[in-house]
Structure prediction request, 512 residues.
Amino acid sequence: MAAETTTQTRRGGTASRRAERASAPLVQQRYITREIPLYELINAEGVELLHEQSMTILEEIGIDFRDEAAIRLWREAGADVKGQRVHLSRELVMAKLALAPSQYTQHARNPERNVVIGGRNTVFAPVYGSPFVRDFDNKRRYGTLEDLRNFVKLTYMTPVLHHSGGVICEPVDVPVPKRHLEIVYSHIKFSDKPFMGMVTAPERAADTVRLAQILFGEAFIDTHPVLTSVVNCNSPMVWDATMLGSLACYARANQAVLVTPFIMAGAMAPASTAGAIAQLNAEVLAGIAYAQVVRPGAPMVYGNFVTTVSMQSGAPMVGTPEPAMMIYVTAQLARKYKLPLRTGGMLNGSKIADAQAAYESLGTMLPTLYAGANFVLHSAGWLEAGLAAGYAKFMMDADQIAMLQRFAGNLDLSEEARAMEAIREVGPGGHYLGCAHTQRNFKTAFYTSQLADNNSYEQWEAEGARDLDQRASAAARQLLARYEPPALDPATDEALLDFIARRNAELPNNVT
Prediction:
């Protein structure tokens, strides 16, 4: 009976502590300013060797720009143009890169949520582009507008995610030609963090810019970036009209873009790490240089998405040594060009939030942090090589990011942290549980996961023997239940909805 009472008391204490943590006020965290040192994989001579190979690719092989406007602008800029193939001299490329800022501030509708992208700063944004979701019951299905809005709300409520992101999951219940309007409005309405623009067609990028103008004012966004979007090169060495049109639209509006080759080494780049890096570097430099041809000084981010290909199945592989090496070296190249860097994320190929997902995610995220990434897309929720966004995985990733944010602040060496007072008080053979220093610091001394179970087997079993996926799904539900929307000026909201209604009336329901 006594043992049963003790177990019940312990269970009650645990439940009350969890309830207290769940109801504690959410304090948004500032984006990370890293205090830990950077890790550089290769020396300066190695960086220069890869740079020179990239310049050779641009000069001798060239990049296809499959867009008439881009061809015209490159010809006017002095590039060697043969059909759609553009050969860029190193002098032209380096002159254009020098025009891009080394960092910029992306403004949010709540100025307290502004983020500085570049320097020693790291900004985390959630998963992007998943057509499927793994729902609260761990079932895989197509994403909906409700799912997208749920993820926007979760991101808004997650203190260590600094950016609302973009297409967190595809709302397949909304017609494709109109989908971008609902996605952008969801970020504006349900969050006050900075967000991304749409890039699936140049006219959708233009609609995003117009919505941003309504929200922030035309004059403001002409001089203040309020969007950071992403365009992808069609590796190997092709920039297509859709991506170039969206890139040019945002550059003309002085809005930032993550200029990102999508590298699958062994398929879309050489089956060697160094060769893949050199090609990637040439592709991203060509894209950023083109943005500077469109509008000198437009903020751009050196972006990359790096995987290798399984030579057995053809599937992308992440969390393995070679993508980590690509992350480190592309970071060194971005610093050489004085450009902000986008890379990494919680990438994995697992179908569910299992041990494979955990190992591969941290196998990508740890190099991302050590390399000094400035913008990290796919930070929370990524599953199945990006095909699925998981509610439970989102919460697990956020928990890990909170730990990494703590780690990135480096070691506290203050007098209080060195705890000499406590060491003197306890002396040899004592314990620190009741000393004054412990009483002052026990709540904040060590990171405590909101999801991990560190109790006894008996207590875990008595509380339902739930695994991490189940606990994380429950935590996502609880967080959504606490959601309250940030205030949005009614007149602004009305103007946004009016524009969206007019555009919806003009747009077809199906892609033709």
User: Anything to note?
Assistant: Confidence is low (pLDDT under 50) at residues 1-10. Residues 28-410+447-512 form a domain with the TIM Barrel fold (CATH 3.20.20.480). The CA atoms of residues 457 and 465 lie 9 Å apart.
